[in-house]
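Notes to self after the Tuesday call (sharing in case useful).
The group wants a holo model before anyone commits to mutagenesis around the pocket. I volunteered. Ligand is FE2/S2 (inorganic) cluster. Logging inputs and output together so the record is complete.
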Amino acid sequence: MNGDMHELVDAEHGLISRRIFIEPEIYQEELRNIFARCWLFLCHDSQIPLPGDFFTTYMGEDPVLVVRDNGGRVHALLNICRHRGNRLCRADNGNAASFTCAYHGWTYRNDGRLTGVPYLKEAYHNAFDRDRWGLVPVAQLDQYKGLWFATFDPKAPPLCDYLGEMAWYLDAFFDRREGGIELIGGMHKWVMPCNWLSPGKGHCVIGVGPDMLADPPASEILAYEDAIRPEMEARLGPRLNRIKPIVGTVFPNFSLLRPTSRTFRVWHPRGPDKTEVWAWVYADKQAPPEVKEAIRLAGVRVFGPSGSFEQDDMDNWQGCTQTGRGVVARSYPLNYQMGLGHDRFDPALGAWASEYRYSENNHRHFYRRWAELITGAPWAELANGGTREDRHA
Ligand code: FES
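Result:
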């Protein structure tokens, strides 16, 4: 890659090069050093509850098959036939005991083992070792409160270390009540002509004061939120009296959103100027049906692909990416200086916090971490080892 990282990301001064949003070489480094190293969200446990259930997704641009085998164990495997590399499973989700490649019929069990090779005896003369040609597993697979994550990097820190304090903020979205959450309806997928970095923030949260309104403006939802407050406080502890998390991102591409609707989403990179969004609406599993319905409607109206907020955001994000095609435009850095020097580590929050409600501190932390990872430096040499509070220490 041309130029040193300091030229691309100068987080200390809040200056970011536009090159990182548009240049194909940098995008390839992102796939290699960020998406093939970080823990990435795969799916929610409720999407694969039974033996044989599967869900197909991506880690970066690598297709991945998440499947619960007949014994109940979850696997995450490259969704690629080991013969000549065809995409193995074409369905979005379903239930299967085995997967057969459409090209020449190699067949894999739902634990990834290769069990069927046509003409094994005649054409391979019984000299082919099927045990060596099973589906390729991810390096590490783990779940947190029903959220399955995986990494291709065997040296990545364990998921709990990777999440650090972010785990509590995930609880504030997904573990507010006994039983956790459930997904409502299906999945929205859409492609945006912008870089995946444009909308993202990193391992960070936007929160408001505990008494500020941050819920969909539907009477059923507001009454429900009031009613469950004591239960939430008992589960989440005193930090809930300091902050109400409303938006968050687990670095690099898993985001959560609470006000106006209840959604979480993955930003799948599809090239330097294309991002595919997969989004789900969710609710507390114990919420009554009328609340779930109100949340579903709020999700469709606001942050679905045709939602009023989402369309507005998408239009601006693609503008930010596409103007970077110009070589002159690219020579001018972007300004992320809002609130520069006005954040501090707050032990009660377990995170860096801004002095004022509006700032670009989250963005600077995100790009600083991006710059650390994209060099390919070992995890142990990163300034924060994966969590921002370590930097403070
Ligand atoms: Fe899958 Fe040949 S590519 S069987």
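Two things stood out.
The chain has ten helices and 21 strands.
The pocket of FE2/S2 (inorganic) cluster is lined by residues 81, 83-84, 86, 101, 103-106 (CB under 6 Å).
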